[in-house]
């Protein structure tokens, strides 16, 4: 009979639990787009519907290493999040704020139809 995770977790020594929690937090802090989509419980098809694109577009996007910030922002919003761009310097961090939503004229025309 399989044991429940919670039972096993409670039997772990505190040091092991702390290491496990630290590793889980590290994994959550850095995740590729496909991992983020899966963690949010969405299929490529479901995300494609939210973005008004076809599923192959999502597959292609998840493989890219370079994309427009606006594309990434839309993708993150469709997953229920917000994108922030932060520059890190030895002196500290700076949030870049000039990436506000800029209306795409082609989207406005599509909405008018």
Automatic annotation (TrEMBL):
SUPFAM superfamilies from the UniProt entry: lambda repressor-like DNA-binding domains
One Gene Ontology MF term: DNA binding
Domain HTH cro/C1-type: 33-86
Pfam families named among the record's database cross-references: HTH_37 (PF13744)
Domain of life: Bacteria
Name this polypeptide is given: Helix-turn-helix domain-containing protein
């Amino acid at each position: 009979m399989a044991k429940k995770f919670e039972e096993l977790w409670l039997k772990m020594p505190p040091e092991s639990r702390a290491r496990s929690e630290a590793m889980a937090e590290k994994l959550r802090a850095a995740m590729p787009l496909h991992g983020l989509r899966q963690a949010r419980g969405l299929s490529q098809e479901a995300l494609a519907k939210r973005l008004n694109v076809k599923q192959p577009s999502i597959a292609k996007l998840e493989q890219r290493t370079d994309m427009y910030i606006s594309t990434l922002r839309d993708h993150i919003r469709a997953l229920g999040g917000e994108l922030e761009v932060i520059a890190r310097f030895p002196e500290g961090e700076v949030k870049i704020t000039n990436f506000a939503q800029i209306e795409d004229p082609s989207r406005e025309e599509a909405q008018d139809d």
